[in-house]
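G.,

No rush on this.
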Amino acid sequence: VKSWADAFGGELYSIVTKYSGSLLLQKKYKDVEPTLKIKEVDGLELVKKFSEQMESMLRRKVEAVERLVEAAEDADLNHEYNSSLEFDYYNSLLINEKDENDNYVELGDEFILEPNEHFNNLLVNTTYSDIQLPTNVYNKDPDILNGVYMSEALNPIFVDNFERDPTLTWQYFGSSTGFFRLYPGIKWLPDENGVISFDCRNRGWYIQAATSPKDIVIIVDVSGSMKGLRMTIAKHTIITILDTLGENDFVNIIAYNDYVHFIEPCFKGILVQADRDNREHFKQLVDELQAKGVGTVNKALTESFKILREFRDAGQGGLCNQAIMLITDGAVEDYEAVFEKYNWPDRKVRVFTYLIGREVTFAPNVKWIACNNKGYYTQISTLADVQENVMEYLHVLSRPMVINHDHDIIWTEAYMDSALFASQAQSLLLMTTVAMPVFSKKNETRSHGILLGVVGSDVPLRELLKLAPRYKLGVHGYAFLNTNNGYILSHPDLRPLYKEGKKLKPKPNYNSVDLSEVEWEDQEEILRTAMINGETGYLSMDVKVPVDKGKRVLFLTNDYFFTDITGTPFSLGVVLSRGHGEYILLGNTSVEEGLHDLLQPDLSLANEWIYCITDIDPDHRKLSQLEAVIRFLTGEEPDLECDEELVQEVLFDAVVTAPMEAYWTTLALNMSMETEAGVEMAFLGTRAGLMRSVLYVGSEKISNR
C-alpha cells in the first residue's frame, strides 16, 4: 500500500507541476527579487488612517443633513399656517396615474422617472422629491398641506447635497404629521391589500432622533373589568409602545390585579435593554395575559418608582428620561401618597396614562395622575386610535430637547434598505441612517417645544468599507465595524440572509448580532469591551478560520487593531494574520512594459475590487475594472480616479506572470489526448487580484462547466 501511495503521489505531483507551470512562476519571481521591496504593515497606523478617512466621509453626510435641518427650520419660521390652503403636490402613490378621461388624477401629475445605477437601478427622479402618506392619513388634511407646502423648500437643498457629494443615497424628511418627503422621488406601490402601512414616525431613525434614551416601566391593569375588547386594546397599546423603543432604551412590564407581578419573573426588580430579543420576548408574554381579580394600582406604582430610583442612583439604564406608562380602565383609590413619597417635588419620573374604553367616569382621576407628573393623558376607545395616541408620548419626552434646541446627531444600527421600499425588493444593502430632529423656531411656540419632524440620510456600509480596501490587509486580513452597543455593522462573517425557497430573506435579528457571536474566540470579551468603549489598541488571538464556504478550517494567529470613528458611535477593527498577512510586496514596472502584458486575452481582474472608481460618473459605469485600468494607463480617460498603488501592483504582476501564457500554450499544442487525458485547465491568481487561465481541452469537453 505504501509503494502504491508513493507512486500515486509522485505521479500527481509531477502532473500538477508540469501543467500548472508553478516552477517557472517561482523562477520568474526569483529573477525580479533584486527590484522588489518588502514592507511590514503597521496595523495601528493603518486602522487610524482608515478611521480618519471614514470620519471625514461620515462628516460630509452629517453636513448634508445639517443643511436640510437649517432649511426646514427657516422655511417653517417664514410660513404662516393657513387652514384653507389649496396646494397640489406630488403624491408618490398617485403620480403618473390617469382617470378614465385620460387626465392625470388629482395630486398625481406627470412625474418623470428614469432608472439610476446609483439607486440600485430603481426608477427615480433626481431633480425632485415626492410625498408618501400612510393609508390612515388623509392626503388633503390642512396640517399635511401646510407641512408639505413648507417643506417644498428642501428640494433645492436635496439636489445641491447630491451634487456636492455624489456618494449620498436617499435623503428624506419625516414629518410629525405623518407625511414622508423622499429624494429622489419614486413611485410608491401599495401592498397586496392596497394598503400603505409605511409610517415614517414608527421607524427607528425617527424615534431615536426625536427622543433621547429612556427608561420605561409599563404598568397594565389586568383586573376583571378589563376582560374582552379592553384587554385586546391594552395589549395592542403595550406592543405599540414596545415598538417605539430601541437599543438605547431600558424597559420592564408589570401587570397588576390583587397583587403585582412582573410578566417575566426573571426580570423582577430590574430594567432590561430594549433590544430586539427582549422586545419579542415581552410581546409573547403580553399576548398571554388574562384579566381577573380586583385592581389595586398603588403597589404597582410603588414598585415602578423603586426600580427607576435604584437605576437612577446606581447610574445604570439610559441616564436620561424616565417614565411610567399606566394602562388602565379606571382608578379609584387614593394614590396621591405614592407620588408624594416617590416623585414630588422633583418629578424626575413622568407618568403617562392611557385610559382604555369608552367610559368617562374615571377620566378626571386618570388625567390628574398624568398632569401632576409631567405626563400626558389619552383615552383609547378603539384599536384604530392606538397608533396616534401612543406616538404622543414621544413629543412630550422630546420637549426639553426642543426648548433647548439640542440638535443631536443620531446614527442607527445597520439595517436593510428593503424596509424603506417594501414594494420593490432591492439588492439587500446594509445601511446605517444619520438623522437629526427639526424643531419649530417660532417665538410664540418656543416654550411648547414643537417637534416638526426628523431629517435623515442613508449611508450604505459598502461605501464605508471601500475606504479599507482588502489588498492593504494582506492574506486573510479583513476590516469590520461595530456599534457602541456591541452589535456588528459589517463583518465578513455576518450572514444576514437566509434562503426561503428561491427568495433570499433577512434573518429576523440580523441587525442585533453581537460581536462576541462572530469573534467567538474573544472569550474574556476583552476585544468587545475595548471596542464598545471606543478605545484604540491592539490584541492578538489564536483563531480558526473557515474557508471554501466552511469546508476547511485554518488555524491562524490574528492581530486585531481597533479604534473609534470620531463623531459616531462606531468602532473600526482591522485584522491582520501573522505570517503572510503582515508583509506587502511592492514591485516596480514601467507602464509601457506592463500595458502590453495586460492586454493579453486570457487575463482578468477581480471585479469586486476597486481599482478605479466607476460607479459615480455615468460615463464610466459600463466599464469593467480591467477596461477602466487600461483606459487610465493609456490616458484615454483623464478624469478616471484610480488607486495608483494597486494599479502599479497589477502591472508588476502582469509582467512577472506574462511568460506563463507561452509556457501553457506550448504544452497545450504538444498534448497527446490518449496518454494525458484529464488535465483540463490551468490558472493562477496574484495578490493584486489578477487572474490568468488556459484551457487544455476544447470548451465543450470541460467536465465542470
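When you get to it, here's the other one too:
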Amino acid sequence: RTLSLRLACGDVEGRLEAIFGRVRAIQAKSGRFDMLLCVGNFFGSTSEAGWAEYRTGAKKAPIPTYVLGANNQDTLSYFPDVSGCELAENITYLGRRGVYSGCSGLQIAYLSGTEAQEQPAPAHSFSAKDVAELKTSLLSAPNFRGVDILLTSPWPRDVGTFANSTGEIDTKKCGSKLVSDLAASLKPRYHFAALEKAYYERLPYRNHMVLQETPQHVTRFIALADVGNTSKKKYLYAFSIMPMSSMDPAELVKQPQDVTENPYRKLRKEAPKSKAPLCAQEEPACQFFFDLNKHQGKKRPSDGKERGDSQPKQAKKPPQPTGPCWFCLASPEVEKHLVVSIGTHCYLALAKGGLSPDHVLILPVGHYQSVVDLSSEVLEEVTKYKAALKEFFRSKGKRYVLFERNYRSQHLQLQVVPVPLDLCTSEDIKEAFIAQAQEQQIELLEIPEHSDIAQVAQPGTPYFYVELDTGEKLFHRIRGRFPLQFGREVLASEALLAQPQRADWRQCAAQRPEEAAQARAFRREFEPFDFSLRD
C-alpha cells in the first residue's frame, strides 16, 4: 500500500528553468515528490538554447519528468523516437500512445498530440484508430476497472456538462471528441490536460449508472495553465495517489458529496454493450434493481415477487379519498369540460394552465395516489394511453415527455407534455432535467428502460420521475423538500420550450369557454388514435 506523491503541470513551452525552479522550491518546503507529469506543449518555438543544456547533461531535471509528444509541426524534431525515449537525464518522452506502469504499480495511460483534422494523420496528431487501439489494449485485460491517471494534451469535448463553470472555455466547442471517448472508456481516477491556457478543476464525476451498475470510482478532471503565465493561473498540481490495485474496493468506490453525473453519458450509451467488460464483483444490471427504502443497496428480485404483501395486484380496490378530490371522475369537483377521452379505468384531460394547448393528463378513474399503487388492469390502460399519445404526437412531429410527482398530491396525475422533434433530441431532454436537478441538489438517476417504477419505489414512497416516449426514465427518491413545479420549470426553460413564464400553471390558466374550446379541438384531432372509442 504505497502512497505516491506526484506533480502534474500544464504547457511548459520551453520554460524549463521556471518549471524546475518551482519544483525545487516545492520539494524544499514539502518534501520529495516521485515524478512530474507534463501535458500540453513541453517545448516552445524558441526552446533550443535552453534545451541544449539539459540534452548535454550540463543541467538536470530535479525529479523524473515524463512528457507528452508534439502538438504541432514546429516541435516534432525534439522527439526522435515515436514510441518514446529518454530525451535527457530524468526527462522521458512517453511515446505516441500507451500505458506506463512504474514500480509503484500506478497505471498511467497517455495519448500524445492533438486530434487529427485530416487523413492520414500528421505525426503530431492522433486518429480514431490510435484511440481504438489504446482502448482495446486496456479493455481486453481481465477485470479491467479503469486506470489511475490519464494524460492528454487536449481537453475532452463536453467535459463541462453537468459541471461547475469552466469560465471562458466553451467545452461544447473546444477539445477533442476522441479524448472524451477515451476518458469514458478508460475511467481514469485523474485526467490531466492543457493547451487552453486555463486552470479548471472539474467536480468529480461518477463512472457508473446508478441503479443499473455496481458502484465504481469517480474521475477528477484537471486542466492546467501554461507555466509562468502572467495571470498567475495555476499550472502545477500536487496530488497523492495509491494504485487502484492496492486499494480496498469499498474505499476506492466511495462517492464524494459533490459528485456529478458523467459528462460523457451520451458516449457511454452509444458504446456497444458487449465491449464493456464487467468488474469481478459486478453482475449484469438486468438481473436486479435496488430498493430505495431504508435497506438501500440491498438486492431484491426483479420478477415482481416480494412486493410487501402477497396479494395479487388486481385484487386491490382503490382507497376512498379522505376529502373532496379534484381528479376522481365521479367527484363533483372534476372540471369535466377539460376531459377529452374516457376509458374503462383511466381518462385523459387537458391540463389546466397547460404548458401548451395539447398538454394533457392521464388520470385513473378511481382514487389512486401514484403509479406504484395502481392495479394491473389500470396500469395496462395507462400503457395503452401512452401508446396512443405517442402515435398521436409523432403524427404532429412531436415527442412527449411524461412526468409524475408523488409528493404533496392526493390523486395520480401523469403530466404528458409534447415537445417538437426538431427542437431537441431525447438526450437533450434528459440532460436538461439532470442539469437543472443538479443545480438544486436533486439526485435524478437514469433507470433501466424496461423496468417500471414499482421496481425502484415501494408504495407510499415519495418520488418524482420522468419518462420519454422512447421508454427512457429518470427517477428521484424524495427525502425532504421538493420544488412542486420542477417538471414544468425544466420543460419551460430556455434549454427546451423556452417559455419560462409558463412554469407556474396559475399564470397560464385560461377562461372556462377557452378551455372548453381547446378540449373540443384536442378531442377532434385525437379521435383517430383514441382506443376508448373502439374498445
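The chain has two domains: 5-253, 336-529. The longest strand covers residues 398-406.

Enjoy the weekend,
O.
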